[in-house]
Amino acid sequence: MADTYQAYSNEVTSRLPILVESARSGEIAKAIELLADAVAADGVIRAFGTGHSEAFSMEVAGRAGGLIPTSRLALRDIVLYGSHDVSELADPTLERDPKLAEELFAIHETHPSDIYIIASNSGVNGSIVGVAEQVKAHGHKLIAVTSLDHTMKVTSKHPSGKRLRDFADVTIDNLAPYGDSTLPLSSGLVMGAISSITAAFIAQLLTLGVAENLSARGITPPVYISANIPGGDEHNNVLKAKYAGRLRADG
Q1: Cα 108 to Cα 116, 192, 249, distances in angstroms
Q2: DSSP string over 37-61
Q3: What is the DSSP string of the chain?
Q4: Is the Cβ–Cβ distance between 205 and 145 less than 8 Å?
Q5: Which CATH class is domain 2-243?
Q6: What are the residue boundaries of the structural domains of the chain, listed by start?
Q7: 143-175, pLDDT tens digit by residue?
Q8: Which of 1, 48, 91, 155 has the fewest beta carbons closer than 10 A?
């Protein structure tokens, strides 16, 4: 069993240097430049993901050590702010429904300088592709975080037949393999999911990169500090006031 743990650790750690190099001079670096341009122009970084990929949007938006001008879209928004009944959220196939995209996009106030990051390991579910389509139709920049290995081996669930990456200005590969499992076990099963770990790492690389980029431009990065330390709320509220009405309370 100990060898299994080490093997999984190796699967994780072998991917991190590749992502670091991408942050220096690859697709992550391109994404950092676009995100910094948006923040410098008073834009908000809007993150979206469904299923396990919602964890990525939570890592990007509204967390301690993250950037203030960030906000999350989530499928539950169609109930909280839209026209749908809460019972619809119990449908496990909801994320595959492309008809939700237009309303989900519309219930978030946007600014021309806003930029979107959408994370989806498969990159083919209807709501994911639908929101990506809406983002580009409204003239915003879009960064995709997806598994290139997986997305090119599956069929889109969107009527257009397109994938998330087809709408992106920059596509970041999360380096997850097809099926998002890395480790064959003696039982014959393949386990050891990787996409959530690499996605969280990518989110932090983007956040750090944007802060460094803004600093190089002479702009003080607007950063959240923990609300659980003295003065945290006061610090955050002063910076959030600039974006009044544009950030959701939960991110």
Answers
A1: 12, 36, 12
A2: HHHHTT--EEEEE-GGGHHHHHHHB
A3: -HHHHHHHHHHHHHHHHHHHHHHHHSHHHHHHHHHHHHHHTT--EEEEE-GGGHHHHHHHBS-TTSBSSEEEE-TTHHHHTSS--GGGGG-TTGGG-GGGHHHHHHTS---TT-EEEEE-SS---HHHHHHHHHHHHTT-EEEEEE-HHHHTTS---STT---GGGG-SEEEE--PPGGG--EE-TTS-EE---HHHHHHHHHHHHHHHHHHHHHHTT----B---TTSTTHHHHHHHHHGGGTTTS-TT-
A4: no
A5: alpha beta
A6: 2-243
A7: 999 999 999 999 998 999 999 999 999 999 999
A8: 1
- CA 99-107-97 angle, 5° bins: 15
Could you give the CA distance from residue 205 to residue 20 in angstroms, rounded to a whole number? 8
Contact in structure between 62 and 56 (CB atoms under 8 Å): no
Q: Is the pLDDT of residue 2 over 80?
A: no
Whose structure tokens read 């991190």? 16
Predicted confidence at residue 251, as pLDDT, reads 44
Tens digit of each residue's pLDDT (9 = 90 or more) over 225-248: 999 999 999 999 999 999 998 997
Name the pLDDT band for 250 (thresholds 50, 70, 90): low
